[in-house]
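Table S7 (text form). Paired inputs.
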Amino acid sequence: MTVPGRRSSTFIRLLRSGFTDPSAAARLLDSDALASVRTDPVLLDALGATADPDLALLGLVRLAEAQSDDERPVLLDTLVSAKPLRDRLLGVLGASEALADHLARHPRDWHALVTYEAVDLHPGLPEFERGLAGAHDPVALRVAYRRCLLSIAARDVCGTIDVAQTAAELADLATATLRAALRIASAAAPEDAAACRLAVIAMGKCGGNELNYVSDVDVIFVGDARNGGDEGQAVQAASRLASHLMRICSETTIEGTIWPVDANLRPEGRNGPLVRTLASHLAYYQRWAKTWEFQALLKARAVAGDPDLGAQYIDAITPMVWQAAERENFVADVQKMRRRVVDNIPASQVDRELKLGPGGLRDVEFAVQLLQLVHGRSDAGLHSGSTLVALQALAAGGYVGRADAAQLGDAYRFLRAMEHRIQLYRLRRTHLVPEDEADLRRLGRSLGLRTEPVAELNKAWRRHASVVRRLHEKLFYRPLLDAVAQLAPGETRLSPRAAGQRLEALGYADPAAALRHLEALASGVTRKAAIQRTLLPVMLGWFADSADPDAGLLNFRKVSDALGKTPWYLRLLRDEGAAAENLARVLSAGRLTPDLLMRAPEAVALLGDPEGLQPRTHEALEQEVLAAVGRADSAEAGVAAARGVRRRELFRTAAADIIRSYGTEDSPAEEDPGALVDRVGGAVSDLTAATIAGALRAAVSNHWGETLPTRFAIIGVGRFGGHELGYGSDADVLFVHEPRDGVDEQEAAKAAQTVIAEMRRLLQLPTADPPLLIDADLRPEGRSGPLVRTLASYAAYYRRWSLTWESQALLRAEPVAGDADLGARFIELIDPLRYPAEGLGEDAVREIRRLKARMESERLPRGADPTLHTKLGRGGLSDVEWTVQLIQMQHAWSEPALRTTRTREALAAARAAGLIPTEEAQILDEAWVLATRVRNAVMLVRGRAGDTFPSEARELGAVGRYLGYAEGTVGELLDDYRRTTRRARAVVDDLFYGA
């Protein structure tokens, strides 16, 4: 009978001891198996000190129940009398459900935790080999492995060893296991063992003596013949032994598995032979190996098999590893490797990824390995497979800052400790932080966070991940600034040669010039230089992420020189999180935006304003331009002001386009390329219309004051009328006028001609701003016809002489400036021409097809690749636009939605009306958007318009980056472009030519 109140006091005590289910814990304590110790206060306190008291108690009951009647008192007596055993055993039971299962299956294995000798505190490879010596089959090997693992876990959770020592012991245990597995495989096939020499080379974390609790063990196998035997037969025998070794470790038995043995880091990966001779390995590495393979070989270590053969392999490949930075493609390979590969991580898991997520373990490991490859060729002190040892060596040699190395080392240890404890719970290979509250509580308590374990864990994890993210780039670049600034005497610094090597490895083509720029920006004791030293490590990383880091750094120096004395400039970059990254993207993406910015550097302020990159409305632009023209003392000054507005707004549009195309750390790249194209086309077209309106106002005021003797309207055609202008597009227009009452027609015509000439002159005056070219070649009769006509003259011409192509050109006509009423009446005049009642006749359709075919054969520039010409090439802009325009002329009379000047809008309307199948409309839209973006990219990168891909490698790479292709993948870009336009051409052949 339970004494009243006793249960409640036990319940409260269990709750205070950290049990989350005191009722269940009380029942477990009342079990017969714990009868002799259930009231022992030491036991309850020890359970409360574990990561998960409920789990520890359940495991203890299971272990006690599994003991024989003779053995159970021994276990329980030792448990309450020997603190080392108590801490170790309960610590393991509270942290690992999997090891509790092992102890329940093998109840005598708790004795492995009893001994507390000096050797037991820090066992090495010989001790683990002795622990596995009695295993002669895969099942026995698993049991012995778990027994050894039990002792490592006990020292880990009790704090006897730190995370680096734990990882090293796990690697030693893996080495002993590989040796035992090879011994078992050799015993099963003595003829094979006698016929060959086989060396097992550990790679990855095992090779670097920094293994996880559950991880693939990466290996490479090297084989050779014994005593002059047949090499081919020896390799076959070695392959059989290696395969059996892998199965012994990897296959699932009644005792589970140990871990997968992964040989995919071998030459040619899984497509290559499992075992090669040393000569074959060397031939591959000398001729075919990629940079990442040498990076992987940083951690190579001979661990099992023939020791002489293993040593020969390590001796032979070591010089190749440290010469990898001198290979031809090293920089390009490094740039590809530097970009985080998170595409294969499900979006729901990115924020929980300890290894591959932002600020994860891979960031630290990659940074350290890259710096080892760059500087290890001249400093043998960096030749270590251990991340933490290498990081200390890098700091000691001045290759990274000591404070940065210390912070990064602390963060790495914490993240590795999290990874260890997550994997220890169920002995499963995972790098995901759990979501369940109980799992997070256990994890936090296992790391010593006891007050609010979940909240404290999340805070500490985010803090350490943030440190890694922040230092990942600074680790590369801050020592470069220390090397040129030389502020702290006595500090170990990078030599100029080492600094140049690092810049070259990170993609800078002219390291010497880059170092001069850094010295100019960061040297000295001024506040400006101090802020630059804070900014530059991150800025250099962003520049290196572009296709032309050198240009980015040079442009940054120019802008900084121009604005260096302006108090807001560096403060903006330092304090506005997005401004610095936005500026880095804009300065390194090509020539156009830096050129625009250099003419008015104060436009940098737009990059720090959340609204600064939004396009302005046509009304707002026109109002600003007309106000500027009205304030000016002369027509020239007025149009100069208007062109200044145009330059600023071109910069705003181009900067927004680049930033949305590249994406930033806080904002991913725009996923809809069509939205990018529409935004640029609309913004540049509105800006061009406002500029022309300003030039018109200035030209009229200069000669006639307020009123021109004739009503005058400017009609945008082509891309201008279609709101599809690119950065390098001319403004295609038609001019129309109508004499005012009482004004002679000749006087009116002369006034119209004069105002056009004056507008063109003003818009092309030599200034620092880009000129705006007005092209009127699409007017009736082309260049042979009058530059401007009256509305009546247009009506007469179209009534008598109009050709089909002229009606087609009018499909994208829209008033853009001048007399609004006259513009509207011009549109009324041309609507019946461009949207003919009952559509086009057969003759007209044939004429359009004939003109298109003639244009394809005659207008494509000589030598141009028709598969890559964005305007006139196969499946390019012309193909798509003529197809859409033919549909408009055939059906717009009956489908009002087709009466639009915009290509994509008309295409969508045709699809909605059932005139184009949905799939074919999508194919045409994709091709048109891609070709338009390529043209925009060429202008952004080269600073001048072009219809073909650049031939220069860096420019082509920059076009690729703008379009979302990583460094070194321009081949994929060209293939994708050809594939997209080839599919579009097939649709054009069907819809336009009726093939």
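Next pair, protein 2 of 2.
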Amino acid sequence: MDNGLPQNSIKDIVKDKYGFIWLSMEGRILRYDGSNFVQYNNFKLKNLSFGDFYGNIKKDSISVFNISEKKVLLISRRHPEIIAANNTFEYGGAFKGKIYKRIVRNTITARYISYYINSYYVQLDEGSYYFEDDNIIYVDKKSRKRTLVAAGFSCDRLKRMFAYGEYVFISDPVRKKIIRLYKGTLSEIEAPSLYTDPETRMYWQQISGQVFIIRQGKIYRSEFSGGQLKLSFLLEYKDIDKDLSGAMFYDETVRKLYIGSSINGLKILSLSDFSVSRKNLPYQDEVCYAAVAYGDSSVLTQEGIKYSRNTSERVFGAPQSYDKRYIFEDNTGNLVYRENNSIHVRYKNTGFTKYDSISFKGKEIDGVYKNGGLYSASIVDRNQFYLYLFYHDNFKRIEKIIPCGDNIDVVFRYNKDLLYLGSGGGIYVYSFSRNKVIKQVGKGLPVKQMTRTKDGNIWFTTYNSGIYLIKDQKAVRVPPDKNNFLANAHYLLEDQHSNIWISSDNGLFRIHKNDLLQYMTTPQRAITYYRYTKKHGLLNNEFNGSENPCAHQLKDGQFVFPSMEGFVFFNPENIRTYYPGRKDIYLERARVKGKMTQLKDKLFLECGYKNAELYIDIPYYSDLENIYLQAKLDNEDSSWVNIRSDKTFRFSGIEPGNYNLIVRFLSSETGKFVYKTLPVEVEAYFYQTVFFKILIVGIIIFIILVIVQVRTNFLRLKNKVLKNTLDHKDKELLETNNKLKNESDYQKKLVESISHDITTPVKFIALLSQELNESEDPKTQKKYFDSIYKTSEQLYKFTLSLKEYTELYKQENTESEEYSIYDLIETKRLLFEEIAAQKNTFISNFCDHQLKTRLNRNILLAVFHNIIDNAVKNTSDGEIIITSASAESYMEVSIADTGTGMSSEQMTYYSGLFRKKENEHMIFKNYGLGLHMVAQLVRKINSEMTFHKNTPQGTLIKILIKI
């Protein structure tokens, strides 16, 4: 075996406590797990010429010999590492001028030279033996006491030395004795002759305690127990001398012998309980089909070859046959088979040398059968199919002919009444009592073979359609194997432990019958078949199954199956199954980004990785398919992945996060899986982290909230604007309404004001006109006419200013040019002078000619007009005096009359009108409109007006005009 080896030169082989096999080579060491090699060569050592293994396997301490190094390569915990050397790991060296070399292994080609090496020694647990100066010296480990054990011992005899524990044995071929050394004592013991045979060679490895005796290609294993040396034959390997074998190791668990060659790499030889018997005749193939049981441990074919375990021999002479598919024995032991479209009967009493031939003219014999005491033959006659039933074993006497719809390949007698006829279209159930086919089972299935197990169940195999169980007269398919090799199964045999052995086109399968029946009743867990192939000692994986019979259970308990390279013999009691231990799985190596990583408790995959590989280390040295090694990640979409021979699980395109890798395998025949879990963390980019996602979600939420808030604020602002607009509109509407109302009030006030202001002059003119009408005195009339004229003239002037009168409440409070208060008063005095004169009242204007203001002229005219008008109305035979005064912030115009005067209530009321706030609604009492209008106009120009009693009578009104 050189596949996977970096070179063909192997120095030593050992198996550690974990089950891994280690190979030392030039420049490297290799670890083998039964499927793959792991190479270690990256060591910081000057010399990489590795040699023998030594140390203690049980203590997990295996060292590798390396010449002239102060450091040691130690294999521990399934991994090699460099450590500093100490006394424990000393392999040899120089001491006090002598060259020492430790013996840890004896090989076939070992040589011991005394002129270069001064002392060879064997180091044991309690002491050491030194072979120097032709002496054997024992040094006790504790006391360091040196004991001379023997003298006259030549070092070239060491090539026949081996040891078991504290015992050292040296074979002496000359004296045919075995020298035994034990704790410094020497004795001689008897042993099998192979130990002392000069032609035998020995192989011994101290660390494993294994000793092999080799003679003429035959390899024996030596054991020491009960004080006796014993040998057991392992196998024969004739090329062991050619390979210059330098290393050997026998794995007793899986019965494999590993031979390391210095030129041909690694040979793995399997010791198998399967035996393939071949005829070994020149120019003849080894393909085997039908045979009959012959004796207790053999089978016999129609060619006259008797096949036994590991041997074959000819019983009778017969030509090579190309029609070897049907054979059985009749009631007297004669051989019956088909040959050249006829039935041949070879007579046992002649030693099978004579035979008769029976044929049916014009008809083809497709097959001959014996089952349940019935002898039959399937016949084809012009595309019509029949089954001929013979009278016992008399093939010349046909007892019954059964017409069939298909060609019959299998005849199986279910009971006395029912006969199962297997064909390419299913199983026809024929009833003898009813003389017809009463039903068909497994319609459309191409039936190959039928058999009955000990529990009475009927099973049948098919061509490429699997295995079926007949249950309640229905065909129920048996669950297939994971590779569907059993789709073309051949035949079933049941052993003493209810295990079913199934031959197929690709291996021999084994499964417990109860597991199949239970699964077919309540399928709860996967069915696991155990498959035997060439890895288990078969010469060929392909068995044959279209013949009849196609399997045998011999009297000595052996099963026999025909194959493409002979008959396979085995005793099912001796055939073992191999499973790894429950703890024999290690998930500690991975390759990430092309770099090998040693794992501790988890696998960490950095962000951005593309592919990663996890190596599943299981020391298993049989067919990996049989342990159903599978793995998966524990995410929602994962399913079990079958692990192939590279024992590698590959990661690709896994989303960031934490996972568990679950690995499972079978560790026993129970079919229950062992599970192993490894945490796997896939690092995320920042934008793949949960924090980032939370951040993004937070930002999105924040943006949404901001948008909502902005929208809300916008809507609020819009609502506010709308509300303000509505409020403004409401105010405008209210103002408009108020304006309209004020306009209406204003118009009413204006009309009333005009009516009020012109009432007195008009009334005066009317009175004068009446007086004029009644008077006949020309002088009086002239006087009246003169008064009417003057009053009319002033009234005319007043009416000219009615336009400005209409705008009093809309005009500004100030004007651009100053005017005299005196002139303003004088205008009104002249208007009311004639009216006052008629009432014998005089109006005097004593205002300061220099007193000027910018206040609205029309407003002041309206104010003065109303006050003087009221004074004229309420004063008779008196006087009205108008004066003015000025201060820093205001000017005062006083109008005093000596009329009837205002009551105290009226004065309080009118004074209160000026104390109200500007926007406070004024409630008017029914005291007349004039002064109310005056109050509004005075407030409009931010002035005040006070009311006082005049002395001795009358009213004094002061108008305080702000400058």
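The two ends are 129 Å apart (CA to CA).
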